[in-house]
């Protein structure tokens, strides 16, 4: 058996600390090495214990979660799993935490006796993923390259991301100029209630406008639409041009929204003028979508392992042979500009 993943739990709630300890106690490849009731104690234990993963409450006395996270990333970078709440305020704090270096989050409000089993499964899955994750340095400004002669210019950019995605999306979208001549549609695996806040944060930091997509929205050059959580986003041809269609099917899809669903629909609408990009994340969502784009002559990118938080989705797509270019995060915006 491989080495156990050593976890430090930092939370001001004794109930939550005890609950997380119980959830992880029977997992053979995970070991809780310490508990801290606030940020100051958490930093001290992190220095002493050198954990592989830290679970961190975002609301704590003395030293708050975000302040603790900033100091932890500066002193001893380590994969951090935020314990958050799915409220509007909680979404804002959580997204700020992801910008500061946290890699994932779970809904702390579901730490209740009736929902412990489902939360335990999510917690274990994410700790295992972060146990092999790398703490990513802040990306450098994008560097462009020349577009290959003879290829149609891209008219629509489709981006898919999961774990580590919010920070990666910021790096890509903020690298696009105000006069950007293609449409961008993004799927980020994230719970309901977070996509609007994420879109607003991206919009505030980008030259191109970013907003959450709505059913019937026109897909137009020079804007970024973020697929809402909990429902699939497709691109369809309407009377006035390409539009957003929000649909419940396919109900059996592992993720809603699905990168595969979005990219496959884009391939049907844009053909060789579609460009698909798969960023950091767990699983294989996006592989089938990139295959559809590749089959119709479009361009396909995957984030390079060296810059990924989790080299899951890109790895699956590369292994399937559906990626034309493997690109580090700090070069993806430049590659997109060259294609447009």
How does this structure look, described?
The protein has 340 residues and is an alpha/beta fold. 36% of the residues lie in helices and 21% in strands. The chain has helices spanning 14-25, 39-49, 65-75, 88-100, 116-131, 165-173, 195-204, 259-270, 287-295, 313-319, 329-339; strands spanning 5-10, 30-36, 53-57, 80-84, 104-107, 156-161, 183-188, 210-212, 224-226, 232-238, 241-247, 274-278, 299-303, 325-327. The strands form 3 sheets. Strands 8-9-7-6-12-13-14 form a 7-stranded parallel sheet, with helices on both faces. It has a 5-stranded parallel sheet with strand order 2-1-3-4-5, with helices on both faces. The model is unreliable at 138-146 (pLDDT under 50).
N-end to C-end Cα span: 48 Å
Unreliable spans are 138-146
Averaged pLDDT, please? 90
| Spatial arrangement of strands, main beta sheet | 8-9-7-6-12-13-14
Determine the strand fraction and express it as a percent band: 15-25%
Secondary-structure class: alpha/beta
Seen as an oligomer or otherwise, the chain set is: single chain
Helix and strand succession?
EHEHEHEHEHEHEHEEEEHEHEHEH
List the main descriptive attributes of the protein structure presented here:
5-stranded parallel sheet; 340 residues; alpha/beta; 11 helices
Strand and helix layout:
Elements: E1 5-10, H1 14-25, E2 30-36, H2 39-49, E3 53-57, H3 65-75, E4 80-84, H4 88-100, E5 104-107, H5 116-131, E6 156-161, H6 165-173, E7 183-188, H7 195-204, E8 210-212, E9 224-226, E10 232-238, E11 241-247, H8 259-270, E12 274-278, H9 287-295, E13 299-303, H10 313-319, E14 325-327, H11 329-339
Parallel strand pairs: 1-2, 1-3, 3-4, 4-5, 6-7, 6-12, 7-9, 8-9, 12-13, 13-14
Antiparallel strand pairs: 10-11
Helix pairs in contact: 1-5, 2-3, 3-4, 6-11, 8-9, 9-10
């Amino acid at each position: 058996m491989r080495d156990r993943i050593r976890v430090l739990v930092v939370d001001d709630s004794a109930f939550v600390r005890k609950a997380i300890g119980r959830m992880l106690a029977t997992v053979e490849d995970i070991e809780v090495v310490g508990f801290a009731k606030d940020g100051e104690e958490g930093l001290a234990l992190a220095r002493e214990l050198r954990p592989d993963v830290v679970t961190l409450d975002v609301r704590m006395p003395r030293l708050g979660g975000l302040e603790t996270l900033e100091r932890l990333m500066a002193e001893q970078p380590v994969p951090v799993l935020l314990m958050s709440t799915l409220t509007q305020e909680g979404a804002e704090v959580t997204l700020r935490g992801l910008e500061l270096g946290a890699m994932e989050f779970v809904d702390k409000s579901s730490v209740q006796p009736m929902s412990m089993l489902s939360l335990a499964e999510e917690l274990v899955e994410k700790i295992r993923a972060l146990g092999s994750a790398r703490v990513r340095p802040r990306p450098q400004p994008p560097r462009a390259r020349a577009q290959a002669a003879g290829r149609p210019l891209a008219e629509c950019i489709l981006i898919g991301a999961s774990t580590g995605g919010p920070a990666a999306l910021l790096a890509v979208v903020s690298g696009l100029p105000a006069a950007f001549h293609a449409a961008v549609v993004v799927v980020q695996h994230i719970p309901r209630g977070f996509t609007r806040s994420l879109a607003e944060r991206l919009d505030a930091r980008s030259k191109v406008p970013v907003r959450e997509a709505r059913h019937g929205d026109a897909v137009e050059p020079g804007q970024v639409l973020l697929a809402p959580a909990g429902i699939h986003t497709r691109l369809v041809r309407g009377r006035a041009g390409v539009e957003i269609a929000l649909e419940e099917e396919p109900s059996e899809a592992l993720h809603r929204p699905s990168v595969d669903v979005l990219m496959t629909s884009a391939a049907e609408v844009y053909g060789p003028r579609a460009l698909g990009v798969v960023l950091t994340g767990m699983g294989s969502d996006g592989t089938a979508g990139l295959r559809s784009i590749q089959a119709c002559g479009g361009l396909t990118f995957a984030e390079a392992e060296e810059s990924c938080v989790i080299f899951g989705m890109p790895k699956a797509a590369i292994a399937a042979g559906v990626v034309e270019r493997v690109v580090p995060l700090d070069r993806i915006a430049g590659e997109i500009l060259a294609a447009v």
